[in-house]
Amino acid sequence: MVTLEYLVQYAKQTGYIFQGSEIYGGLANTWDYGPLGSLLKRNIKEAWLKRFLREGPNIVGLDSSILLNSLVWQASGHIAGFSDPLIENKTSNQRYRADKLILEHDPNANPDKMTMDEMYDYIIKNNIKDPVSGTTDWLPIRKFNMMFKTHQGVVEDTASEVYLRPETAQGIFINFKNLIRTTRKKIPFGVAQIGKAFRNEITPGNFIFRTREFEQMELEFFCKPGTELQWFDYYLNEMKRFLFDLGIDKDLIRAEPHAVESLAHYSNATTDIEFKYPWGFDELWGLASRTAFDLTQHQNLSKEDMSYLDPETNERYIPYVVEPSVGVERLLLVFLLNGLSEETLENGETRQLLKLHPALAPYKAAILPLVKKEHGEKAQEIYDMLRKEFDVVYDETQNIGKRYRRQDAVGTPFCITVDHQTMIDQTVTVRYRDSMEQERLHISQLENFIRRAIKF
Ligand code: ATP
After folding, report:
1. Helix, strand or coil for residue 111?
2. What are the residue ranges spanned by the domains of the chain?
3. Which residue's CA is the closest to the ligand 1 atom numbered 9?
4. What is the whole-number distance in angstroms between the Cα of residue 238 and the centre of ligand 1?
5. From 37's CA, which of 159, 208, 359, 448 has a CA 20 to 30 Å away?
């Protein structure tokens, strides 16, 4: 696997990802997705919607707002509890998440079960040093709420305070009654949503792994109490199937169930799917069985009835919820790390290769005239035909070998070359990115060829 530094450079050079606000010296931990990055992001979201919404068991979509009534965050527990334990070193003035410092010291420690005082004692007793100053000059740990606060309207008083949502899920819970009423869905059913979320993380970093602004893809699956663990298993399998079908190496993935003693108070099962990043295994995708916690909290504070009347048994209950939740950028990072390599060819040359499933590849094909003067017009015609349905790219600069390399490096699965033969019999050369093998296809076969290749 390439290093993170290599990937950052690669992403910048190819147009996948640029540093945010670069011309002004940057804004720490913000990133802009370039022509290729924005297409890859879109394709990841499309793939998720296909599997988790369209093909899922009884799923509908939602697009709820980022700004919500602050009572939502009171009910959900975010105002009181969406905080990380922050510890500051007096010598370096650096701030860290105390739980992460402890886990870096001993991966088997369990900071989730420690109070803030216990974490502090642990850090002192184990002589954990600030990586910057090398001292143990620690200030007491305090809670740091990670929600971004802003003001709505022209007056900046406490009544106008609103938060940017730190997760998309609550937008689904507060619409539960609307969703039931308008879709007439019967339980079990689910609601899928993609949208921006904001968290004022204490220690963002590792490129796009942890940022303060990111996009989440969340599914809240509502089911009958007692059936939630079956659905939990179902979704754990679906998450893995999604990753493996899209080409993630099985050896780079593991499922880590949270120990019972470290589960959040509202959860009766939580498992993280982890990926082996350059710094080791870390979270990619969370799966949580959240019981009736969120709907009950909203029922209590809003006084709206969130119960469901089962038409078959006439039972009334508050549904249980199973939630798979993943960040778009984190998945994008994983697809890049999984796919990018430098390969030595038989002739001793190296080529940069990004293996992406054709469904995810920003460009499905590159259309290349072998000789611009002779084949340019025909190639342009094919390009115009294909771009009606697919994201494709046209390239006529430099020799054909260089053009192939350029496409290999950004993940384009097929190069379609127009040459002398094309002028005679309307066939083109199709070159495969991974094997570099070539075959001839008739122009009329191209659309179907690509359509088949992007299926998963
Ligand atoms: P952590 O404990 O690492 O801070 P978390 O367990 O709080 O993360 P969740 O609330 O479960 O994360 O978020 C669900 C998913 O959203 C994560 O698995 C990850 O893919 C994504 N995600 C969460 N926080 C961030 C972030 N700051 N930047 C990018 N993606 C994130």
Report:
1. helix
2. 4-67+169-337, 86-142, 363-453
3. 286
4. 19
5. 448
